[in-house]
């Protein structure tokens, strides 16, 4: 074995030396005389080529005879041809900076390389150069400024992305693909954001497809797809370092922020090496640490009062108040034991008197020390001039918070993604796996309810418990002449005696005990160890079929759901869910290549559902005048219900559950076939009125896939190489739209009077299909202007709307009436263009937001967020210093109800060897 390994290494090292001559040189920017990184160097009329390294140097081995013509090209430079007359003599090549607008190329729109300007569908892009010049701290923040993109920021490190208005944390209808791998959590099915995506230094480009994209990328692409591509170590070489030191929670007291000013750290390092013309590798690592933003919305979910005026107070970001009951039975018991209290008690019994347990605020309850660490390694080996083998692995871990039916602290989670791939110009074969470990996830609401029950049970069945004590305290205060409001406050203080206070040893002990006990054993710990396995292949038949372009592919996927009965009904063994897919894309150019027609078809089968799904996309792009493109597309997209939407079987409260919409699951686990559910809203109305006719049955069917038919018309033009203009409109029709409903039933009895006692019924949050058609529509425009001398200005506007929505369904259409984003910057000014700056503005008017899972609903205030950065290059040191701030005005804003308010981060960054 050792001999074989030695022979392999020797082969890698001497392969380029056999019968080959070497062309060497250096490429520089003619304006600044800086080395030009990652510039393509190709032999004319040949596939042979290489790239300049981080010092602008290149070396190309060839067996061809002199003279040889080199083709030198890179976006941002004018292309150049250079004639080589002798080998082994270094040559110096100067490239003139050129126009960038309209030159961007994309792949995700049609699975082939094409200009973004001529894309058949709406697509937005971020390049590595834009990332390095951006005032934002990371590329996930940059995405907020793209046209058509909505985001929900749950915390530092957890940003959920969507398009076309459907916006929520953990969006399962948005696909995130990293180097060809679906970046979703295997069990929860939502994209993992930045947890195991590319490090800041390893992003080559990001492409965001707005709206439906199932025909190309499969199930769950209804709300869009983001395709991220890492840097090729053959192209991007050398050591790069990015160190950012900042401070956030500044001027916190004036903004109601409970956290003191705190340091922000973000460190990234990348090293890539081209060993020879066949072998290259790269290693990446990034660590981020900061005091997280805190969600502190005190809005009462039970009504208009506050925690000082409403005994049934249940705050949005106060956890534990979901335990609530009508204390009238306790009042009646007191009256029976002491008839003399009748003048006090009888007026109270005229209506229900609901009282909630005392909740805990998020600050001091959830650990707000955010940290993320990820590491990536990749090895590439060229088997020959056309075939390349790739092996890569990414591992991420950390402590972050996200929002769903409550706030979840992902503590010490671990996710790994590992890939093997063979690829050529015309085909690829790829297999990968994603391995998930939920760590010690803290479920804020249920954990707080259990803590309350642990230090003092709500009711012990006799005369003891928190509610009997509360009742006694209430009557005592009223008997002593207190007002009803003051009496309730005194009653709470009396019942809360001995309470486990935040941060106390007892509180920490109870919290640790509950969060370390699995849900299936009466605690709140997830034991999710789900895995995803994927294999796929694609072939481009265009060289074989001359009259049109043909691309075809197949995909196989296995979800191995393994939560030990804490997330899915998988107590005995993991649940395996399989998907099978096949697709074909056809393209034809007509009218002297001015008209480009494309059609895509995809077949998908999921083993949870009996019927397969067939989806399609058709598009036409016409160029009536050079650099002017009219595009029209029809896309049919679908989504099988996610594993969570179909199979979730999780307690999410002291007496409530989150459930998938499978009728088999509902009947077997929750006995819906025997004991029918009622809408939670009608149960509340019954409790308040004592009128059982107000109860409304919840009618449900087995959950089905949802689908959308989307039409889009757009126009894009490059005017005088200085102005890039793009405008679009779309209209979509949704069928079997999947949303959520809050319901309740009384297992074991059909006696609806059981609803009067809060402890005898169970609440459910159920995924289900809305019955009616839902329509969405919108429009957008963007303008980019090259102002010369490296000045660039951009502005975009977009607006999304919904109609015919099911008001009984939480549909996650959370977006303002319009967005305005602006950018202005200069990528190089001064004598040697060593200075640069960038500014952005994101404006959103206030809008109504409903949290997925029913946690809360309310209005998100208007926000205007300005980011800015000034940079200086130390050319000889190949370094740069950046001074900047995000949300520079420090006016706190939020991207969704129950999510944190976000203030400024002021920072300084040192960058070494970054393009």
UniProtKB/TrEMBL annotation:
- At the top level, the lineage of the source is Bacteria
Which GO biological process entries does UniProt record here?
A: siderophore transmembrane transport
Concerning InterPro entries, the annotation shows:
Beta-barrel_TonB_sf (IPR036942), CarboxyPept-like_regulatory (IPR008969), Plug_dom (IPR012910), Plug_dom_sf (IPR037066), TonB-dep_rcpt-like (IPR039426)
Membrane topology label: Multi-pass membrane protein
Query: Sorted alphabetically, which PROSITE patterns does this protein's record hold?
Result: TONB_DEPENDENT_REC_3
GO molecular function, a single term: siderophore uptake transmembrane transporter activity
Q: Where can this protein be found?
A: Cell outer membrane
**GO cellular component, as recorded:** cell outer membrane
Q: What is its main location?
A: membrane
- Say yes or no: keyword Transport present: yes
* Pfam families for this protein: CarbopepD_reg_2, Plug
Q: Provide the alphabetized UniProt keywords.
A: Cell outer membrane, Membrane, Receptor, Signal, Transmembrane, Transmembrane beta strand, Transport
Q: Which residues form the TonB-dependent receptor plug domain?
A: 116-225
Q: Where is the signal peptide?
A: 1-19
By sequence similarity, the record places it as follows: Belongs to the TonB-dependent receptor family.
Tell me the protein's name.
TonB-dependent receptor
This chain's source organism reads Pedobacter frigoris
- The organism's taxonomic lineage, starting at the top: Bacteria, Pseudomonadati, Bacteroidota, Sphingobacteriia, Sphingobacteriales
């Amino acid at each position: 074995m050792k001999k074989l390994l030695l022979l392999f290494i020797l082969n890698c090292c001497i392969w380029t030396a056999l019968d080959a001559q070497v062309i060497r040189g250096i490429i520089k920017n003619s304006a600044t005389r800086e080395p030009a990184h990652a510039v393509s160097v190709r032999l004319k009329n040949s596939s042979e080529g290489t790239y300049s390294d981080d010092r602008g140097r290149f070396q190309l081995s060839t067996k061809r005879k002199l003279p040889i013509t080199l083709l030198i090209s890179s976006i941002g430079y004018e292309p150049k041809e250079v004639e080589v007359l002798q080998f082994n003599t270094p040559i110096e090549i100067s490239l003139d900076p050129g126009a960038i607008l309209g030159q961007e190329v994309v792949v995700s729109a049609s699975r082939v390389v094409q200009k973004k300007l001529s894309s058949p569908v709406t697509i937005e892009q971020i390049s590595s150069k834009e990332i390095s010049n951006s005032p934002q701290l990371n590329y996930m923040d940059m995405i907020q400024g793209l046209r058509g993109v909505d985001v929900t920021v749950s915390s530092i490190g957890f940003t959920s992305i969507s398009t076309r208005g459907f916006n929520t944390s953990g969006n399962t209808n948005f696909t995130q693909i990293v180097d060809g791998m679906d970046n979703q959590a295997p069990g929860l099915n939502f994209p993992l954001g930045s947890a195991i995506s590319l490090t800041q230094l390893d992003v080559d480009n990001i492409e965001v497809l707005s709206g439906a994209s199932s025909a190309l990328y499969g199930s769950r692409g209804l709300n869009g797809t983001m395709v991220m591509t890492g840097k090729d170590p053959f192209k991007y070489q050398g050591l790069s370092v990015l160190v950012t030191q900042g401070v956030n929670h500044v001027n916190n007291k004036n903004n109601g922020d409970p956290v003191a000013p705190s340091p922000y750290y973000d460190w990234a390092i990348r090293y890539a090496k081209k060993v020879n013309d066949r072998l290259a590798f790269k290693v990446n690592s990034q660590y981020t640490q900061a005091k997280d933003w805190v969600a502190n919305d005190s809005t009462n979910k039970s009504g208009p009062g506050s925690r000082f005026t409403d005994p049934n107070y249940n705050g949005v970001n106060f956890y534990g108040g979901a335990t609530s009951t009508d204390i009238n039975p306790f009042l009646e018991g007191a009256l029976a034991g002491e008839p003399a209290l009748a003048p006090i008690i009888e007026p109270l019994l005229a209506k229900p008197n609901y009282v909630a347990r005392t909740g805990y605020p998020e600050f001091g309850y959830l650990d707000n020390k955010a940290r993320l660490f990820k590491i990536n390694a990749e090895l590439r080996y060229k088997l020959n001039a056309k075939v390349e083998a790739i092996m890569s692995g990414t591992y991420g871990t950390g402590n972050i918070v996200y929002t769903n039916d409550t706030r979840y602290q992902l503590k010490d989670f671990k996710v790994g993604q590992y890939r093997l791939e063979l690829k050529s110009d015309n085909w690829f074969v790829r297999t990968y796996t994603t391995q998930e470990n939920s760590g010690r996830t803290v479920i804020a609401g249920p954990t707080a309810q259990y803590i309350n029950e642990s230090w003092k049970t709500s009711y012990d069945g006799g005369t003891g418990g928190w509610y009997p004590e509360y009742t006694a305290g209430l009557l005592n205060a009223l008997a002593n002449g207190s007002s009803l409001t003051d009496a309730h406050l005194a009653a709470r203080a009396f019942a809360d005696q001995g309470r486990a206070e935040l941060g106390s040893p007892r509180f920490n002990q109870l919290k640790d005990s509950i969060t370390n006990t699995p849900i299936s054993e009466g605690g709140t710990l997830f034991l999710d160890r789900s895995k995803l396995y994927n294999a796929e292949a694609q072939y481009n038949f265009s060289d074989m079929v001359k009259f049109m372009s043909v691309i075809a592919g197949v995909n196989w996927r296995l979800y191995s759901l393994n939560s030990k009965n804490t997330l899915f009904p998988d107590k005995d063994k993991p649940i395996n869910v399989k998907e099978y897919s096949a697709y074909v894309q056809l393209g034809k150019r007509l009218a002297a290549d001015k008209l480009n027609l494309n059609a895509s078809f995809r077949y998908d089968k999921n083993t949870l559902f009996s019927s397969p799904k067939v989806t399609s996309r058709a598009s036409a792009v016409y160029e009536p005048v050079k650099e002017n493109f009219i595009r029209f597309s029809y896309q049919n997209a679908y989504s099988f219900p996610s594993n969570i939407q179909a199979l979730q079987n999780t307690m999410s409260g002291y007496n409530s559950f989150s459930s998938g919409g499978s009728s088999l699951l509902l009947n077997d686990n929750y006995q819906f076939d025997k004991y029918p559910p009622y809408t939670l809203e009608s149960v509340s109305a019954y409790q308040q009125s004592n009128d059982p006719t107000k109860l409304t049955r919840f009618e449900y069917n087995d959950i089905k896939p949802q689908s959308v038919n989307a039409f889009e018309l757009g126009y894009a033009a490059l005017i005088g190489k200085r102005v890039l203009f793009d405008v679009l409109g779309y209209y979509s029709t949704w069928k079997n739209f999947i949303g959520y409903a809050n319901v309740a039933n009384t297992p074991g009895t059909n006696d609806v009077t059981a609803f009067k006692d809060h402890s005898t019924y169970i609440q459910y949050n159920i995924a289900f299909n809305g019955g009616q058609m839902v329509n969405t529509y919108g429009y957008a425009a963007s303008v980019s202007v090259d102002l010369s001398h490296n000045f660039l200005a951009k502005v975009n506007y977009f607006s999304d709307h919904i109609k015919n929505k099911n008001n009984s369904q939480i549909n996650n259409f959370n977006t303002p009436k319009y967005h305005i984003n602006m950018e202005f910057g200069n990528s190089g000014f001064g004598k040697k263009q060593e200075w640069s700056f960038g500014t952005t503005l994101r404006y959103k008017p206030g809008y109504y937001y409903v949290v997925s899972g029913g946690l809360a609903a309310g209005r998100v205030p208007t926000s205007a967020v300005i980011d800015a950065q000034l940079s200086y290059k130390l050319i000889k040191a190949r370094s740069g210093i950046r001074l900047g701030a995000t949300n520079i005005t420090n006016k706190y804003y939020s991207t969704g109800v129950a999510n944190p308010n976000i203030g400024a981060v002021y920072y300084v960054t040192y960058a070494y060897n970054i393009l």
